[in-house]
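User: Modeling request: complex.
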Amino acid sequence: MSQPLLSIEDLRVEFDRGEDTVYAVNGVSFSIAEGETLGIVGESGSGKSVTLMSAIGLIRENGRIRSGRAMFQGTDLLKLSERQLEDIRGREIGVVFQDPMTSLNPVMRIGDQIMEAMLAHHFCSHREAFERTLQLLHEMGIPEPKARFRNYPHEFSGGMRQRIMIAIALACEPQLLIADEPTTALDVTVQMQILALLQEQRRKRNMSVAIITHDFGVATNFCDRIIVLYAGQIMEVADTGTFLRESAHPYTVGLKHSIIEIGHRARPLQPIPGMAPTITEMPHSCSFASRCPFAAERCRSELPQLREIGSGHWVACHRAEEVLADVI
Amino acid sequence: MSSEALLEVHEVSKRFRVQGRDLHAVEKVSFQLERGQTFGLVGESGSGKSTLGRLVLKLLEATEGRIVYQGKDITRLTQKQMRPLRQEMQIIFQDPMASMSPRMTIGMAIEDAMVIHKMGTKEERHKKVDELLERVGLPREVKWAYPHELSGGQLQRVGIARALSLNPKLVICDEPISALDVSIQVQVIQLLRELQRDYDLTYIFISHNLAVVEYLSDVVAVLYLGEVVEQAPAEELFSRPTHPYTQVLIQSILKMPGSMEERQALTPIQGEIPSPFNPPKGCPFHPRCPLAVDRCRTTKPERRNIGPNHAVACHLAT
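Assistant: Request completed. Predicted assembly structure:
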């Protein structure tokens, strides 16, 4: 395993909601190695976006980082000023969001938006930026780059807009690309195109990719390693092979069984009962216990710590070994 | 057979006039649906699947074709004439939040349709609200809550309760689980199945999620640019997909593999869905079809049967 490029340590993020405090991220630690593709998987409210976005300084006004570190190339991102973060975002770290329509400027030609990404970071001269933009549009699979340069976002399809977002994110050759549900709003055939494009670019540029997704199919086919988040905590971390063969957290197992795939017609459904809690008190026991078929007394009284049960395979469950024995 | 059909849709088309141009939203779609069955409609954005659902409910007027409900041609009925039938035909939307008034409590929202249709006394309606909430798996106290206080999954259960309040026979489910988390999706699918069994409901299930459509449907139609390119019983369609577009759709789904060796290569199909203003000549799928031959570029393939109840619109299908 090579050097970590980004290392998040004991990150805690809270939000004010009325009189309550919502504990969105509760002591999350993980790292992304150089050249690695990491999948961060979870359902709504699990903290999967908040974790990465707050690490790069993108946090809503009612939120705050309580503690933690986010080490990127020897610098703690959480200690940087907004100015310094702006230098890193878009230059060393590219970001792609779910909905390109809300992140692109509707009244600016797309070519200018890609150029702006380079010029704002003094990445290259105006002339070079223009040439590079045409090259990027071509690489992203946008036909007739010269003509399309002058179009506005609304003149593109959803898939094409996402390609433009990726062009902007990659314009300054970042070492890390964070993709937050980049294909969730797209049709399956377009999703496949975008993922293939991301894979090709990742290989060509040897960059690290962190993809935030709720889709196990996307995560397992695209990523080297997978982190499962629930209620703001890491439930399980494993390389994809281990994840596929022997997931050991009841939540992961439950999610796997919940997936309906083609050919499942005759199978009975196995839903996870209940719903994910909103954490308004610091958890002192397992957040999943109330929905867990394996839950024992200990699970309701003692917070399970993330522990390594196999090489690089971390699980936050008191009964991981027993769960694993059942799975195998 | 046809005497039992709850719903018959004959060669229904819908064209919208937009800025002086014709948009072909739905082209000559036909199917029939027996009581208690589920008809699945799959397709990507812009394929016309939601429009078709709205045509059946007559929330939109068909440009051509006929819609027959319980033996009665309803194609040209006025909205007023439709009123008595509306009770029997309900719809569940993708985003239940958007279909509920933020100022109405959940109890009021469920009761509302019964009030409009003058069903029962106030006491009877309130009793029914309690029953419905229990049936869809929500605590009774929810009736005092406002929509913003509920989660997406809970709101969809309310949407379902509301659709059921009028004792419908036909329910159009338009992407009812697409906005929900995986673990909640399964719960809602299970609920929809139980309700179908208990109340003998007939569903038109619209989704871009092929696996869920396969799971729930008896018969499935695949739509592309407003046309049915393939239609077959669900098992047949997914075990023997014959139209190249159906095959592409199925291959585009990233399944969770059993091991690293079984991971899927990311092999995309070229191009995107063409503009419905200007559909391609010949077969609508030919510009993206890996198998297209000259004939596909010039002659539009007619839908034809290649097996029992298995229809395909492709020159090359056998």
